[in-house]
Design goal:
heterodimer, A: 127 residues, mainly beta, five-stranded antiparallel beta sheet, 1 helix, 8% helix, B: 384 residues, alpha/beta, Peroxisomal Thiolase, Chain A, domain 1, 2 domains, two-stranded antiparallel ribbon, 11 strands, 34% helix
Amino acid sequence: MADLMKQSPYGVFLDHCKKGELAYQVSDGKPFFYPRAVAPVTGSDNIEWRVSKGMGTVYSTTVVYTKDQPPHNVALIDIDEGFRMMSRVEEIDPLDVKIGMRVKVKMHPGDEKQPTYPVFTPAGGAK
Amino acid sequence: MSGLKRGSVAVVGAAESDLGQVAPHTSPVDLMAQATMRALDDCGLKLSDIDGIFSAATQVRTAPMTLAEYLRIKPRYFDGTAIGGSSFMTHVAHAQAAIEHGLCEVALIAYGSTQRSVSRAAASPREPNPYENPYRPFMPASAYAMAASRHMHQFGTTREQLAEVAVAARKWALLNPKAWEKEPLTVEQVLKSRMVSYPFTVRDCCLVVDGGGAIILTSAARAKTLKNKPAYVLGVGESLSHANISSMPDLAVSAAAVSGPLAYKMAGLKPSDINMLSLYDAFTITPILFLEDLGFCPKGEGGRFVQNGNIAPGGKLPVNTSGGGLSYCHPGMYGLLVIIEAVRQVRGECDKRQVKNCETAIAHGNGGVLSSQCTVIFGSASTV
């Protein structure tokens, strides 16, 4: 059983991010995301942390227009290991991010308010 | 829903509060109370007749309790289920269950919001989510925008087709004196408006206004003794799919595909038996998804279905005759106003926008980011 007095699911995820790793969980052979204290559906406490190879495919995408700031991408990424997460594709015009595009994870350093978090860049090719 | 009886309860009173931009310092509960008295006046019941309170509001965490205090009534039964804009369809289902079991006899469902006056950020602060907030999605628009992107990718739906939904809503709104928007709107204007979250411009997004409403439900037996026509609850269906958009299994299929069939089964009706639709139009993609998922066109055909004014006045299928959340009123959680329009159509109270011979209507609610879907089918006296 996860000991929530000692560490939280997000805390472990963040520790991995700080090492440049995109971490996710597996229980009974099934990957899931976001990280949880209890496996979904089964309720199992037999949960293993794994590190993703960091490759994924854009499942959907939008571009957010905010006053006084350049437009930015928001996307849902299907990670090759079998889970989906929200993220952002960088190093490309946000409107050029397309569904099916292959992408690779990198860590955004964050700032004082926002701890480091995973973003993606185009990896070339499409699915 | 299984376990509930077709036509056992009816909406007997329905009313909006003041809508649009209310006076400074008006509270959401002021709006609930105002709408409550109007809904009671609509059916000839008194405050003291209410023995069940159902309410949810983003600005009032303990809505049933706060409203009970304001009105100084002590309900025998109360329910504050809060699952976003569809909460009130759920309240109809739960009120029906409570009335059938004798837990209450006269149920009030009420809502109020001052989101235009106090700002949307103040009215509906985002919950912390370390897996989404760093990416600064403009919620809820960005979630629905990603559903629209999927629909466009998979089925060839176009921005022009999305815009047709906003144009149809505006045409209906021009027939509704209570609608916020008063000027015509074209597809070109929708496309050229300020971009919010691609592919949505501001005209693909619902209004941000103040407002509220109230409805009164009671047993079919008591409904027959009251002064106005009852709108009988023929069927209800509820479904929870996810909370966050990244956990939605398929962005092109909503859980209306679950709630709809539950409601049809209880009502003993099919889509072709329905005379008008009141569909939660938070964004232009939502009526397209719900037309598909509620069985009015095949999956993927929603964009083509809404073309050529098919859901506008004079079109094939009347949808959102009030003008909808896009052009009539959207006070944060719009579901109660979705219900009120369906009730009015079944009662024949809609004047210039009245659907002829409207005996059945769907009020379909959506909550969160396509997260909760709840369907209510109303029928006139001829259907029970």
